[in-house]
Specification:
Order of helices and strands: EHEHEEHEHEHEEEEEHHEEEH
Strand content: 15-25%
Number of helices: 8
CATH superfamily of the domain at 2-139: NAD(P)-binding Rossmann-like Domain
Largest sheet: 6 strands, parallel
Shape: globular
Distance between the termini: 29 Å
Oligomer: single chain
CATH architecture of the domain at 2-139: 3-Layer(aba) Sandwich
Mean pLDDT: 94
Length: 304
């Protein structure tokens, strides 16, 4: 079973993606009376004629999560137009600490996937609050940034997104690091197709694109839902897919004691491996800047 805490727009979209693909039974939990139940019914009606045979339940009771192999947390306040992810820090840290305690109580053996922003810091809060091993608490951000970078490059180069191989690491925020030095199009290095200025423009566009979506439709929903589903499937089906996600580092990339996005091998045990990339000086500087932003945010957290 897959548990989900938060039945708002992103949580509901992720649940719909997972249910539509028949990945596993789903348990939705939300503190808003009736919301999780309503979303569960709506999703169940949608999939009833698709040949998919999974159950979707909703409740305000955390005990509904019992038996979940994976728990996805998207509860908390969402970004509004003009806000940065870090603007949500104080209020969401309290929410996530409370949610994490309940998850640890009801599902002590689960893999926990954090979505709530600022995601890297909330992953840290969840890790410290649950007391889980670091491999079992991971954050969704890099895989979403990756899809956006591919979109930007495909539009700029007029190629299929499926031709692009790349990775995005670092803070899920203004200091994200689309790794141009490890990006290729059909095997051709990106640096052979775009000059340094054009690459910088593409990276800056990628950093701003989420804010553009929020300004136009109020929230990012579909792309995060798809990214969450991809991560959940890699755990439930033990795919061992290598993808960027936030995890606690212990010296890798020159960082220690923070959660930040890096390439991981994602399977039934969670983050089963961390892969270190050789970065350019500029990429490493951006990565370290993101790490410092996360470190300062952690230091400013109220007691949880």
């Amino acid at each position: 079973m897959i548990g989900m805490v938060g039945a708002g727009r992103v949580g509901a979209q992720a649940a719909l993606e997972l249910a539509s693909q028949g990945v596993d039974d789903i348990a939705l939990v939300d503190i808003v009376e009736g919301l999780a139940e309503g979303e569960a019914l709506d999703i169940s009606h949608k999939i009833s004629e698709t040949g998919v045979d999974v159950s979707v339940a909703g409740s305000t009771d955390y005990s509904t999560l019992r038996g979940s192999e994976v728990v996805i947390v998207s509860a908390g306040l969402a970004r509004k137009p003009g806000m940065t992810r870090m603007d949500l820090l104080v209020k969401n840290s309290g929410i996530i600490a409370s949610v994490s305690r309940e998850v640890a109580k009801q599902v002590p053996g689960c893999i926990l996937i954090m979505v709530t922003n600022p995601m890297d810091v909330m992953t840290y809060v969840a890790l410290k609050t649950t007391g889980f091993r670091k491999e079992r608490v991971i954050g969704m951000g890099g895989i979403l940034d990756l899809s956006r970078f591919k979109f930007v490059l495909a539009k700029r180069l007029q190629v299929s997104r499926s031709s692009i191989s790349t990775v995005v690491i670092g803070e899920h925020g203004e200091n994200m690091v689309p790794v141009a030095s490890h990006t290729s199009i059909g095997g051709v290095p990106l640096t052979s197709l775009l000059n340094e200025g054009e690459i910088s423009q593409a990276i800056e566009e990628t950093r701003k694109v989420a804010a553009d979506v929020i300004a136009k439709k109020g929230a990012t929903v579909d792309a995060p839902g798809n990214a969450i589903a991809r991560m959940a499937k890699s755990v439930v089906w033990d795919r061992k897919e290598v993808l960027p996600a936030s995890t606690m580092l212990e010296g890798q990339y020159g960082q220690r004691g923070i959660c930040i996005g890096v390439p991981i091998k994602l399977g039934k045990a969670g983050a089963e491996g961390i892969y270190e990339l050789k970065l350019s000086d500029k990429e490493r500087q951006s990565f370290m800047s993101g790490g410092e932003t996360i470190r300062q945010a952690i230091a400013s957290l109220p007691d949880f």
